[in-house]
């Protein structure tokens, strides 16, 4: 039996989506595509499909810590990817996990709303993420509606929201696509004052799990040792391709195709 040590392990603390479009399945597939191994610790169970989230239940803090500690005791963790938290107790939980893994990249995807518009936690969860999680993260990847919630700027521009969030996190990637812009503008802001905008073609339709896909791909590239700016570009390019090849598996949003059709052949 061969023993492989080349694939970095990325610990994913995210919710489970039974439709397979978002959440931990998105994390797993996107990380496999980067050449990484996903270690998925479930933070929440959801009742959802490609149309919307109908309900969710955040797991007990002890169960999530037990999952994470079991992985951490067994495998070296190369990066951490955060998805749906959903409660103040889960914010406390991921803070504890991050502090137990000093010096590794942490990608925070602040999942505050589902693609269909439903909230995935109360307003104070967003505040707690901003105040307690973002200072421990390497980068956060909100879309503009999420950035406005985090920054408490209901009508704020990407630039205005980023200036608030940079006081908490050294790098902020605010993704486009939620307005009526003809092209998608993904804007990377860094605390050192640098800005980098990547523009891509707007694709028709809407997509289920695009944010999870991007954040996981980014965590994978950082786990592989890629520089942050280069990792952002690679992850954005990869995510756009998954949307270009997306499938309509249900009655709602398209699901990104994160793995090639011949992956298992």
Automatic annotation (TrEMBL):
GO terms assigned for molecular function: kinase activity
Keyword match Ligase: no
Top-rank lineage group of the source organism: Bacteria
Entry keyword set: Kinase, Transferase
Transferase listed as a keyword: yes
Pathway(s) served: Cofactor biosynthesis; thiamine diphosphate biosynthesis
Residues covered by the Pyridoxamine kinase/Phosphomethylpyrimidine kinase domain: 17-253
InterPro entries recorded: HMP/HMP-P_kinase_dom, PM/HMP-P_kinase-1, Ribokinase-like
EC number(s) stated in the UniProt entry for this protein: 2.7.1.49
Listed name of the protein: hydroxymethylpyrimidine kinase
Protein source organism: Pseudomonas quercus
